[in-house]
Design goal:
By secondary structure, the protein is mostly helical. It is built from six helices and two strands; from the N terminus they run ααββαααα. The chain has helices spanning 11-14, 20-40, 68-76, 79-101, 112-117, 130-156, and strands at residues 56-59, 62-65. It has a two-stranded antiparallel ribbon with strand order 1-2. The longest helix is centred in the last third of the chain and has 27 residues, at 130-156. The chain is flat, with a radius of gyration of 24 Å. The two termini are 40 Å apart.
């Protein structure tokens, strides 16, 4: 297979007026795209250095993880991850109602249940200033849901039966 460009502009036309730092960043990104393209074409029958199960390919200058974003999204779409996120959302609604509409003689510790439900990731955010601590609950929920989803995918994946 061969292909050619219909129009091949020169470098001066393409980069006219662009700052050098921007051009350096573009070149770096293009190098990554070239590495990605190399990784996509490494899986011939004779190639032995790719981890097909984890979708890693080892190329010059390091390794490239293929479809990382798609793997995360597919893990978050599993019943285990969606169920967990629903429970965390319901817990967050309960905490919001308790905080906003129910008066307590003392402080309510309902908010701590959000940190416990999204632990251990969210507990790392308890050391940051208090206005940013609730960000840890959101990050913790996504991290825990992704891990649950990946575990669910691993447990429910059908494996080929080999004779022998």
């Amino acid at each position: 297979m061969s292909w050619t460009w219909e129009c091949v502009p020169d470098e001066a036309t393409v980069a006219a007026g662009a700052p050098p730092a921007f051009l350096a960043e573009v070149e770096k990104r293009v190098d990554e795209l070239v590495r990605a393209a190399e990784a996509l074409h490494l899986h011939g029958p004779s190639y032995q250095d790719a981890d097909e199960g984890a979708k890693h390919a080892f190329v010059d200058g390091g390794f490239f993880i293929m479809n990382g974003y798609r793997s995360l999204v597919s893990a978050l779409r599993t019943p285990a991850a969606l169920g967990y996120l629903f429970l965390v959302g319901a817990l967050a609604a309960w905490v919001a109602v308790d905080t906003l509409f129910i008066s307590h003689a003392d402080a309510s510790f309902a908010g701590m249940w959000l940190f416990f439900a999204t632990a251990p990731t969210s507990l790392l955010f308890l050391v940051v200033p208090s206005q940013f601590a609730l960000i840890g609950v959101s990050i913790g929920a996504v991290v825990q849901a992704a891990l649950l989803g990946a575990a669910y995918q691993g447990l429910t994946r059908t494996r080929p039966v080999t004779a022998g």
